[in-house]
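SAMPLE LOG
Freezer: B-3
Tube label: C17
Construct: single chain, 469 aa
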Amino acid sequence: MANALVWLRRDLRLHDNPALAQAIADGYAPVLVYVHAPEEEGAWAPGAASLAWLHFSLLSLHRDIEARGGRLVIARGASLAELERLQRETRAEALYFGNVYEPLLQARDARVQQAFERSGIAVKRFNASLLVEPWQVQTGSGTPYKVFTPFWRNASAAFSLRAEYPAPSRLPSVEAVGLGIEQLGLLPAIAWHAGFWSHWRPGEEGARELLEAFCEGAVEGYKEQRNLPDRTGTSKLSPHLHFGEISPQQIWRRTATLRLSETGQADLAHFRSELGWREFSYHLIHHFPDSTDHNLNPQFDRFDWAEPDAESLARWQRGRTGIPIVDAGMRELWHTGWMHNRVRMIVASFLCKNLRHHWLHGARWFWDTLLDADLANNSQGWQWTAGTGCDAAPYFRIFNPVSQSEKFDPQARYIKRWVPELQQLPTPLVFAPWQRPELLRHSAPEYPVAPMVDLGESRAAALAAYSRR
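STRUCTURE (predicted):
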């Protein structure tokens, strides 16, 4: 049986993997390959948290492949050179892979395809990580969408729910020179990530467990519960989706089997619309590749952002702003590699509007510390909150962190979990402890006695800057 390379990237799974399934269906013995080439991602090479997840995801995939008699071939270096080497070593007659959509990687993949085809090696590419590929949906005038609602109406009608591609029961053993996963050096020298793994289980099995838990519990009430950071009201599948340990088709297919009440069906529709926002982010990054580093709305190119202040940025990063809900979110991120979505919006609004720092400062920190750091979602999420993107919250929509925490964490359970020094304060005071500085100094002497900026004054300054743009 002839060999074919199956190049894995954002599809680190054996179930519902179209490239792998098609290689087998075409009669090839699949040679499963992962090439680590972070330099090819330019300024947005994976951050420390993502690399740590990748380490354990590859270990999980390696075990799954070995259990079927096969082997995951690990390489490091230029993707084209390593793939060409492996093609020669294995005498592979074809190359199969799932598409990725980051601008630099799309260009890289095109070069790989052209080089292989010039050498007479067949190349087949697949949609392995989206419901609809970014170029499949367009407005009536043939232009990209810039507003979510019509995009999702069109996209959700355009994709078809297919049968799941089966995982192979057996995989062939492969003779090829490869590296051990540890040789990639993915884990940070200082094990600040050690606490992550009590919250997460990278790999296909961990993804399936989370999906089942969501289907059996949190999907009912999702629309409301998703805004409450003190509980697990979301699927928390985002890191698994980013690394392709589960596909959106698998999620859609599983949720389609649920027997829900009328209210539950509305909850499910809302959950699916969040998958739609992921699709929309990839649509935007494909059609507007500069949006990873530049404002989608060019009016903000003249905006009066504050000069970068290393001290204030560090206080925001470490959860020392004196605004409890902001500090809770930033500490949750540091200790778990994840942050609740509602809190992400609050901390981003505080950085971009109360501190008036450019959204890229926040996007860079999230990129390095989020386990689910995803270039499309991260860029568009920050631009949405900053007001600089497509279909964004207007800049003058400034989240009030006090009223947000009162509304969405009314018992202050989330704040007290991540800012434990405030546990002795009466709950109403936890949301704005600077209102009683003497009590704050007595109960929590290590916590800032005042917020780093006055919320009212900084809001007024942000609106004044907006009026001058």
